[in-house]
């Protein structure tokens, strides 16, 4: 029998930049006297993210949820229209739909990708549908090509929640290249963080000004020749119902300093993932979802699916790990469609979401961060195997 851990092992540990790097940048910010509102660190962070992710346009935000709220707003969807989304996600996803005065409609997920099923999306489309909001859960990509086709056919907008998918690529192409707008989260618990933070990525440059304005209270950005010709010089024109979504200089600096560490972190995470796969995939009771070879994994989470039998279930595995001081996470359980604020929606009917219920009842995310190290990952595997005995 493996001994229990003396210290608590949590699901993740936030990454920090090197102290020398961040203190130097923070000192620079303090001396500059410019703490927020699209300052030097902010603009450099956006520029460096463009290069890092090999994308065309990005706007950074104070968090991913506000970014997603602004994305939906920027698309000018008819008030009260329906947005199809997955119940197998974090609460923020459906909430951003509701905050825009739109109606979330839940559709089922696919067993193999755990993301929105294209078939279920098509079934959910009505005359009132205006957009689709799929989530690249755990950094595993949605069926982006199929969703693209559906959107074109029905003239719908697509906004991706890529909070888990920082650096995920399909055939070397950024996951942010699909859909009208993609949201990234830089929350402390995510693979890459700016303490709190997020971003919108979009291929169509025309969203840039709209997003810039909505992020900053709707204050119009005066820069077109047309405006200048018309003699509009002040920035006091409010163009739309905006919000405060700005990222401050200290967090932008943190993000910049941390960007250099991500590749190293992902290499370490790959090693830990390999340990889990090597030791757990031989167990009949455990299924480890894998992604196809042409996709680069973000290594944001390590989910396993428990094949329930009389002696072994997800909840029982969770409890036993806890007795050994290992805090795994039932992520995402319960489904968003079971939340008090959404459970009365017609689309929340469990019969409509059978795959999502099945995954949600059997999924468990194992501790996954570089400092865990290979030895502790092996020990977690030993504990799991002991439970079965
Ligand atoms: C973390 C997360 C968000 C919200 O991002 P914040 O930056 O914390 O606001 C949205 N969707 C999913 C799937 C997430 O995991």
Number of strands: 13
Order of helices and strands: HHEHEHEHEHEEEEEHHHHEEEHHEH
Shape: globular
Named at the architecture level, the CATH assignment of the largest domain is: 3-Layer(aba) Sandwich
In CATH, the homologous superfamily of the largest domain goes by the name: Type I PLP-dependent aspartate aminotransferase-like (Major domain)
Number of helices, where a helix is a run of at least 4 consecutive DSSP H or I residues: 13
What does the average pLDDT come to? 95
Radius of gyration over C-alpha positions, nearest whole angstrom: 22 Å
The rounded distance between the terminal residues' Cα atoms is 10 Å
Strands across the major sheet, in which order? 1-9-8-5-4-2-3
Strand content: 5-15%
How much helicity do the residues have?
25-40%
Uncertain segments are none
Q: Which class do the helix and strand fractions yield?
A: alpha/beta
Largest sheet: 7 strands, mixed
Classify the fold: give the CATH topology of the largest domain. Aspartate Aminotransferase, domain 2
CATH domain class name of the largest domain: Alpha Beta
Q: How many domains? A: 2
Structural notes for this entry:
The strands form 3 sheets. The chain has a 7-stranded mixed β-sheet with strand order 1-9-8-5-4-2-3, with helices on both faces. It has a 3-stranded antiparallel β-sheet with strand order 7-6-11, with no helix packed on it. A 3-stranded antiparallel β-sheet has the order 10-12-13. Strand 2, helix 4 and strand 3 form a beta-alpha-beta unit. The radius of gyration is 22 Å and the shape is globular. Helix 1 (19-32) runs antiparallel to helix 9 (249-259), helix 3 (64-74) crosses helix 4 and helix 10 packs parallel to helix 13 (373-388). With 389 residues, it is an alpha/beta fold. It has helices at 19-32, 40-53, 64-74, 92-99, 118-124, 144-154, 207-215, 225-229, 249-259, 262-280, 314-323, 354-362, 373-388, and strands at 58-61, 82-85, 103-106, 129-133, 157-161, 169-170, 173-174, 181-185, 198-202, 286-287, 295-296, 302-306, 363-366. Pyridoxal-5'-phosphate is lined by residues 63-65, 89-90, 92-93, 135, 161, 163-164, 185, 187, 198.
